[in-house]
Structure to design on (230 residues):
Protein backbone atom coordinates (compact mmCIF):
# COMPACT_ATOMS: atom_id res chain seq x y z
CA UNK A 1 0.00 0.00 0.00
CA UNK A 2 1.14 3.57 -0.68
CA UNK A 3 2.13 5.32 2.54
CA UNK A 4 1.64 9.04 3.11
CA UNK A 5 4.05 10.85 5.44
CA UNK A 6 3.50 14.39 6.65
CA UNK A 7 5.99 16.78 8.18
CA UNK A 8 6.27 18.43 10.54
CA UNK A 9 3.86 16.79 12.97
CA UNK A 10 3.20 20.19 14.49
CA UNK A 11 4.03 23.80 13.72
CA UNK A 12 3.70 26.92 15.85
CA UNK A 13 3.60 30.25 14.04
CA UNK A 14 2.44 33.83 14.50
CA UNK A 15 -0.61 35.45 12.94
CA UNK A 16 0.39 36.66 9.49
CA UNK A 17 3.20 34.13 9.05
CA UNK A 18 3.56 31.92 6.02
CA UNK A 19 3.15 28.26 6.97
CA UNK A 20 4.12 25.31 4.78
CA UNK A 21 3.26 21.66 5.43
CA UNK A 22 4.76 18.78 3.47
CA UNK A 23 3.28 15.45 2.43
CA UNK A 24 5.35 12.69 0.83
CA UNK A 25 4.01 9.58 -0.88
CA UNK A 26 5.99 6.34 -0.78
CA UNK A 27 5.53 6.05 -4.54
CA UNK A 28 4.37 8.39 -7.27
CA UNK A 29 0.72 9.42 -7.20
CA UNK A 30 0.77 11.98 -10.03
CA UNK A 31 -1.38 14.91 -8.82
CA UNK A 32 -3.95 12.79 -7.02
CA UNK A 33 -3.70 14.36 -3.61
CA UNK A 34 -6.12 16.13 -1.29
CA UNK A 35 -5.70 18.27 1.80
CA UNK A 36 -8.22 18.40 4.65
CA UNK A 37 -8.59 20.76 7.58
CA UNK A 38 -9.96 19.48 10.87
CA UNK A 39 -10.75 21.95 13.62
CA UNK A 40 -10.99 20.67 17.20
CA UNK A 41 -14.17 18.69 17.78
CA UNK A 42 -15.28 19.02 14.17
CA UNK A 43 -15.40 16.83 11.09
CA UNK A 44 -12.66 17.17 8.48
CA UNK A 45 -13.25 19.59 5.62
CA UNK A 46 -11.89 19.23 2.10
CA UNK A 47 -9.59 22.18 1.29
CA UNK A 48 -7.72 21.18 -1.85
CA UNK A 49 -8.09 18.37 -4.37
CA UNK A 50 -5.93 17.23 -7.27
CA UNK A 51 -2.92 18.73 -5.48
CA UNK A 52 -3.64 22.38 -6.26
CA UNK A 53 -7.36 22.97 -6.78
CA UNK A 54 -9.17 24.93 -4.09
CA UNK A 55 -12.51 23.52 -3.01
CA UNK A 56 -15.37 26.00 -3.32
CA UNK A 57 -15.48 28.50 -0.48
CA UNK A 58 -11.91 27.93 0.73
CA UNK A 59 -9.97 31.17 1.30
CA UNK A 60 -7.32 32.01 -1.28
CA UNK A 61 -4.59 32.15 1.38
CA UNK A 62 -4.55 28.35 1.13
CA UNK A 63 -2.63 26.83 -1.78
CA UNK A 64 -1.35 23.43 -2.78
CA UNK A 65 1.53 22.37 -4.95
CA UNK A 66 3.31 19.25 -6.08
CA UNK A 67 3.16 16.08 -8.11
CA UNK A 68 4.69 12.64 -8.04
CA UNK A 69 5.79 12.02 -4.47
CA UNK A 70 6.22 15.48 -2.91
CA UNK A 71 3.43 17.90 -2.07
CA UNK A 72 2.99 21.06 -0.02
CA UNK A 73 0.11 22.94 1.56
CA UNK A 74 0.84 26.61 2.18
CA UNK A 75 -1.08 29.12 4.25
CA UNK A 76 0.19 32.46 2.96
CA UNK A 77 -0.86 34.52 6.00
CA UNK A 78 -1.86 32.51 9.05
CA UNK A 79 -5.14 33.56 10.67
CA UNK A 80 -6.51 32.58 14.11
CA UNK A 81 -9.29 30.58 12.46
CA UNK A 82 -6.69 28.40 10.71
CA UNK A 83 -5.85 26.63 13.97
CA UNK A 84 -6.49 23.02 13.08
CA UNK A 85 -4.91 19.74 12.14
CA UNK A 86 -4.25 19.28 8.44
CA UNK A 87 -4.24 15.91 6.71
CA UNK A 88 -3.18 14.86 3.23
CA UNK A 89 -4.88 11.95 1.46
CA UNK A 90 -3.86 10.18 -1.71
CA UNK A 91 -6.57 10.04 -4.36
CA UNK A 92 -5.28 7.33 -6.68
CA UNK A 93 -5.33 3.53 -6.80
CA UNK A 94 -8.96 3.44 -5.74
CA UNK A 95 -10.46 1.12 -4.78
CA UNK A 96 -9.69 -0.28 -2.22
CA UNK A 97 -8.70 2.51 0.12
CA UNK A 98 -7.77 6.20 0.19
CA UNK A 99 -5.16 6.55 2.91
CA UNK A 100 -4.35 9.63 4.96
CA UNK A 101 -1.13 11.11 6.19
CA UNK A 102 -0.55 11.32 9.91
CA UNK A 103 -1.59 14.95 10.25
CA UNK A 104 0.07 18.26 11.05
CA UNK A 105 -1.21 20.36 13.93
CA UNK A 106 -0.99 24.12 13.36
CA UNK A 107 -0.93 26.34 16.42
CA UNK A 108 -0.60 30.06 17.05
CA UNK A 109 2.33 31.50 19.02
CA UNK B 1 -27.53 21.31 0.63
CA UNK B 2 -25.59 18.08 1.07
CA UNK B 3 -26.07 16.57 4.51
CA UNK B 4 -24.75 13.40 6.11
CA UNK B 5 -26.02 12.55 9.57
CA UNK B 6 -24.61 9.61 11.51
CA UNK B 7 -26.30 7.83 14.38
CA UNK B 8 -26.02 4.63 16.38
CA UNK B 9 -22.86 5.19 18.39
CA UNK B 10 -22.60 4.42 22.06
CA UNK B 11 -20.93 2.37 24.76
CA UNK B 12 -20.49 -1.34 24.12
CA UNK B 13 -18.53 -4.09 25.84
CA UNK B 14 -15.62 -5.83 24.14
CA UNK B 15 -16.95 -8.58 21.90
CA UNK B 16 -20.24 -6.77 21.42
CA UNK B 17 -21.93 -5.40 18.32
CA UNK B 18 -23.18 -2.05 17.12
CA UNK B 19 -24.79 -0.79 13.93
CA UNK B 20 -24.06 2.71 12.71
CA UNK B 21 -26.30 4.55 10.26
CA UNK B 22 -25.71 7.53 8.02
CA UNK B 23 -28.65 9.38 6.49
CA UNK B 24 -27.80 11.23 3.29
CA UNK B 25 -29.70 14.11 1.72
CA UNK B 26 -29.25 16.92 -0.76
CA UNK B 27 -27.62 14.87 -3.51
CA UNK B 28 -28.23 11.84 -5.72
CA UNK B 29 -27.05 9.12 -3.36
CA UNK B 30 -26.85 6.44 -6.06
CA UNK B 31 -24.15 8.33 -7.97
CA UNK B 32 -21.48 8.14 -5.29
CA UNK B 33 -19.15 5.74 -3.55
CA UNK B 34 -19.48 6.21 0.19
CA UNK B 35 -16.93 5.80 2.94
CA UNK B 36 -16.59 5.22 6.66
CA UNK B 37 -13.62 6.89 8.34
CA UNK B 38 -12.74 6.73 12.02
CA UNK B 39 -10.62 8.71 14.43
CA UNK B 40 -9.46 7.25 17.73
CA UNK B 41 -9.16 9.73 20.62
CA UNK B 42 -6.22 12.04 19.99
CA UNK B 43 -5.22 10.17 16.83
CA UNK B 44 -5.37 10.71 13.09
CA UNK B 45 -7.87 9.70 10.43
CA UNK B 46 -8.18 6.08 9.30
CA UNK B 47 -10.37 4.86 6.48
CA UNK B 48 -12.49 1.90 7.55
CA UNK B 49 -14.69 0.91 4.62
CA UNK B 50 -15.66 2.02 1.13
CA UNK B 51 -18.78 0.89 -0.71
CA UNK B 52 -19.68 1.24 -4.36
CA UNK B 53 -22.78 3.02 -5.64
CA UNK B 54 -24.83 -0.18 -5.98
CA UNK B 55 -23.26 -1.95 -3.00
CA UNK B 56 -21.65 -4.59 -5.24
CA UNK B 57 -18.10 -3.78 -4.13
CA UNK B 58 -16.95 -3.22 -0.58
CA UNK B 59 -13.47 -2.72 0.75
CA UNK B 60 -12.17 -2.70 4.31
CA UNK B 61 -9.02 -1.77 6.15
CA UNK B 62 -7.24 -4.95 7.30
CA UNK B 63 -7.93 -4.36 10.99
CA UNK B 64 -11.71 -4.67 10.56
CA UNK B 65 -11.96 -7.34 7.85
CA UNK B 66 -14.26 -10.17 8.91
CA UNK B 67 -15.73 -8.10 11.75
CA UNK B 68 -17.28 -5.02 10.08
CA UNK B 69 -19.74 -4.97 7.20
CA UNK B 70 -20.69 -1.90 5.21
CA UNK B 71 -24.01 -1.76 3.41
CA UNK B 72 -26.34 0.78 1.88
CA UNK B 73 -30.05 1.13 1.15
CA UNK B 74 -30.35 3.35 -1.89
CA UNK B 75 -34.13 3.53 -1.56
CA UNK B 76 -33.65 5.13 1.86
CA UNK B 77 -30.51 7.15 0.99
CA UNK B 78 -28.79 5.46 3.89
CA UNK B 79 -25.38 3.97 4.63
CA UNK B 80 -24.69 1.46 7.40
CA UNK B 81 -21.77 -0.07 9.25
CA UNK B 82 -22.40 -3.29 11.15
CA UNK B 83 -19.63 -3.74 13.69
CA UNK B 84 -19.23 -7.13 15.37
CA UNK B 85 -16.62 -8.57 17.74
CA UNK B 86 -15.75 -5.07 18.84
CA UNK B 87 -12.39 -4.43 20.46
CA UNK B 88 -11.15 -1.70 22.76
CA UNK B 89 -9.04 -0.40 19.88
CA UNK B 90 -12.18 0.21 17.80
CA UNK B 91 -13.04 3.10 20.13
CA UNK B 92 -13.28 6.15 17.90
CA UNK B 93 -15.48 8.77 16.32
CA UNK B 94 -16.88 7.26 13.13
CA UNK B 95 -17.60 9.53 10.18
CA UNK B 96 -19.44 8.80 6.99
CA UNK B 97 -18.21 10.67 3.94
CA UNK B 98 -19.09 11.01 0.27
CA UNK B 99 -16.39 10.09 -2.23
CA UNK B 100 -16.12 12.54 -5.10
CA UNK B 101 -14.24 11.55 -8.24
CA UNK B 102 -12.66 14.20 -10.39
CA UNK B 103 -10.06 13.91 -13.14
CA UNK B 104 -9.26 10.35 -12.11
CA UNK B 105 -8.78 11.11 -8.43
CA UNK B 106 -11.03 10.29 -5.50
CA UNK B 107 -11.61 12.59 -2.54
CA UNK B 108 -14.02 12.83 0.38
CA UNK B 109 -15.86 16.08 -0.25
CA UNK B 110 -18.65 15.92 2.35
CA UNK B 111 -18.52 14.51 5.87
CA UNK B 112 -21.04 13.87 8.60
CA UNK B 113 -20.59 15.21 12.12
CA UNK B 114 -19.46 11.83 13.43
CA UNK B 115 -20.76 9.39 16.04
CA UNK B 116 -18.71 8.18 18.99
CA UNK B 117 -18.23 4.47 19.59
CA UNK B 118 -16.71 3.49 22.93
CA UNK B 119 -15.69 -0.10 23.53
CA UNK B 120 -15.06 -0.70 27.19
CA UNK B 121 -15.95 -3.08 30.00
Amino acid sequence: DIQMTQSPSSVCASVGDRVTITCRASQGISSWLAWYQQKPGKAPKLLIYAASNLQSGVPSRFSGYGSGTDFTLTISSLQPEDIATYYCQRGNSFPPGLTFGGGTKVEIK
Amino acid sequence: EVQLVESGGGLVQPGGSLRLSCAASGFTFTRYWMSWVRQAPGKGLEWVANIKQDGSEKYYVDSVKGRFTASRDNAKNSLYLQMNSLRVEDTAVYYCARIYDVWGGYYRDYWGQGTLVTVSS
Observations:
- Chain B touches chain A at residues 33, 35, 37, 44-47, 50, 52, 57, 59-61, 95, 99-100, 102-114 (CB under 8 Å).
- Residues 39 and 45 of chain B are 5 Å apart (CA to CA).
